[in-house]
User: Which sequence fits this backbone?
């Protein structure tokens, strides 16, 4: 089978491509690649429901032929924690039995450079040791039906991991779904959670992750109060990347620095800075999906290294009257984010094109 492709990724950053193929076009085991008729370049493909996807950070053009082949991709290893692995090595581990709620740590960028703070999981000289509830990459929210599911101080709430579902490995992406429950300190159920994490095989120079959080009011109405202490997707960047050191925060609205980005709405926000032994520059970009409630989200992003998407709060950021969000009993709400890890400072024009690919 031959198809024609014409895709131009922005500035070498990865985009997810829906191919003009049907799942039935692939062999029964799904192991196939597209091969460029002129250059011989190979492009991995993978079925995603009713779609066939690939990922690229280089331009695609010309005629391509579908052929059976197995290529390295994303693999998982499940034990006390779940490991997400790329052909280049470990990307991250999903911890479910440490602290008050699940989290991803370490988060390794290109060259296996750690890009999130290790504290409190590990003591590393030179790292800050404030806010021990900031565990690398996680989801949390204070004041959920008056339960503090953000901090780890006495009386805090919990997100209890219950089970893994939908474990997926493949040449284009792999990931899992974690089923959990938010509770009070006393164990009273507040809401149910379905958290899906998908890692793409984006190549050695970048990392790309989709993070979807579905919350269901299974036990009665759930109100998320207006508070800055929240992030449905939160990251604590490596201390060397902090804005108060040599880091830089920018957003889709032209904001630059904490003063322009903290509490402001934006389609995406980028936090970059030096990391690793040679202090090369790396960055995180978090993209907010247009289908998310509260879009475009406000950002609890600080020079001391916190980077959180907070869609429900206005007054807490000095941006107007309080805007609590109530999820009626029996209903669900879903939030979708994409996380890009790139080398060098964030290129606003290129990041905007990556957001358009995600939004589409």
Assistant:
């Amino acid at each position: 089978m031959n198809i024609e492709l014409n895709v131009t990724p922005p500035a070498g950053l990865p985009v997810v491509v829906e191919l003009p193929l049907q799942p039935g076009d692939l062999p029964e085991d799904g192991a196939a690649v597209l091969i460029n008729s002129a250059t011989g370049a190979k492009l991995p493909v993978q079925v995603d429901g009713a779609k066939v996807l690939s990922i690229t950070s280089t331009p695609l053009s010309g005629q391509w032929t579908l052929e059976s082949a197995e290529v390295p991709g994303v693999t998982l290893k499940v034990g006390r924690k779940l490991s997400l692995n790329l052909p280049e090595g470990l990307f991250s581990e999903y911890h479910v039995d440490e602290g008050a709620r699940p989290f991803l740590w370490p988060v390794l960028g290109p060259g296996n450079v750690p890009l999130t703070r290790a504290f409190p999981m590990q003591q590393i000289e030179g790292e800050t040791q404030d806010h021990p509830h900031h565990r690398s990459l996680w989801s949390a929210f204070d004041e959920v039906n008056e339960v503090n599911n953000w901090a780890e101080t006495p009386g805090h709430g919990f997100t209890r991991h219950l089970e893994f579902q939908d474990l997926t490995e493949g040449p284009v992406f792999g990931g899992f779904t974690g089923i959990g429950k938010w509770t009070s300190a006393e164990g009273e159920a507040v809401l149910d959670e379905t958290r899906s994490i998908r890692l793409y095989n984006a190549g050695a120079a970048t990392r790309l992750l989709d993070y979807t959080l579905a919350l269901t009011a299974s036990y009665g109405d759930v109100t998320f109060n207006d508070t800055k202490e929240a992030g449905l997707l939160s990251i604590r960047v490596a201390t060397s990347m902090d804005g108060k050191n040599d880091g830089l925060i920018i957003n889709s609205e032209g904001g630059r620095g904490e003063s322009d980005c903290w509490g402001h709405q934006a389609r995406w926000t980028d936090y970059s800075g030096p990391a690793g032994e040679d202090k090369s520059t790396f960055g995180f970009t978090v993209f907010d999906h247009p289908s998310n409630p509260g879009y475009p989200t406000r950002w609890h992003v600080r020079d001391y290294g916190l980077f959180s998407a907070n869609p429900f709060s206005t007054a807490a950021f000095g941006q107007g009257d309080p805007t609590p969000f109530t999820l009626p009993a029996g209903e669900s709400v879903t939030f979708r984010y994409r996380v890009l890890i790139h080398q060098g400072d964030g290129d606003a024009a290129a990041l905007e094109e990556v957001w358009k690919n995600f939004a589409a």
Summary: The mean pLDDT is 97. The first helix runs from residue 258 to 261. Helices lie at 258-261, 348-359. Residues 2-68 form one domain.
